[in-house]
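User: Structure please.
Assistant: Input sequence and predicted structure:
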Amino acid sequence: MSNIPVKNLNELNKNGRIIGRANYIFTPEISSSIGSIHGSINNQNESIVMGRDYHNDSIMLKRAYTSGLMSTGINLLNLSDCTFPLLQFTIRRFGASGGVYVSGGHLYSEDVGIRFLDAGGIELSQNEIQRIIDSYNTYPKDVRRVNPNEIGQITAIPQTSDIYIKSLQQFVDKKKIKKANLKIVVDCSYGPTGKITPLLINDIGVEVIALNTHYRERSSSPVPSINTIRNTADIVKASNSHLGVCFDVDGSRILVVDENGLEISYEDLLMLFVTFDKRIQNSKANTIITTPSIPLVVKKFIEDSGFPIKQVENYPGEISRQIREERACFAAADTLKFYFTEFAPFSDGNFILLKILEIMTAQDDLLSSLTRGFPKGTKINKTIAVSQDVIENIHNRLREVAEETGYRYHDIINELKIFDNKGYALIKVALHRDAILLSAESEDKNEAQKMINKLEKIISKL
């Protein structure tokens, strides 16, 4: 145990994911140890799919993890650099026993995290993660080591991206999309999305302006940052594009701006899909799953549209498990994740984008017009001007403030959703001026105003 600096892996457990600074606290020795524990949980000769983002720290920790898995007789299907949804797709396609993804994250841009998946491409539950953590804390008690001639094999799986792209296209009317002559701006956030999305979109006849498709060293600024989001919005307007999207670094979700360079809210996207997606509309006997902090007006909208609704906490993999249990037709988490169950029980940013394009072409209308008439909740709003130097790294600062003050929060890329048992508040960065936009909703307006007042005081000290 002397070569393992973290004595209790709970120190790195952040909401069901193992996250830490590479080489500073999250060392290759830790990664290899977790890999051998994970491999020992599975049967010998089973296969695990592994993938990562572009960064050197992810490469290092993935290779260490690989050695741990192989030492237990587990075979590796190696995707190298890939998006998270591509890894989830590959697990299901090859019938693997599970998967592991090593990458940074939006609000943990300087850290590296490991995500564990089951045979359905769904993240392991908190109880299953705790089993791995508990085994680490008694390491190497529960580890299986195999004979040299039984060590696991590594197999490359080329052309997987091509198969994935073709599969995505089968679930939308690509002929109609091609006839619409659309043009979009896509920020690939310096991640593996840059190898997939431009090809996917170009192949269905949509002109694409692709940004940040290349590798960039990991930095203290989140990706996408307020600057890259603003750049995307400005280019949409300057190029007369129909919309713009900023991908999260792992490719599982997107922030959407309309043709005017204005951000489309999570609530409006949810109502857009419920209203115009034909597969959802034809499944009114099936449940729609959302998170508990959904605005009351959206909950009523779904119910008035004829769908039963179930609300579940947004823990890793929980929405996906409920999709299978409820046979749900659709699901949405207020972290900007949307689950189109005809394709997969997980959120995929590329598929979300394809669905938006399909709806726009089917309705022959622009995104701003399609979302304009949706009901809006009664919220308390406040705009706070901030300086340019505060804006530069605002997302990290907001996360730090939320953690320091003990707030529960959800990361919505350009927003932080802070909530308690009495309501929730959104802290949003304005795209076209240096300001923070606050809004709060509660059944008691006084409670909403109290949240606004507290946040205003906190932000004034940034």
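The mean pLDDT is 92.
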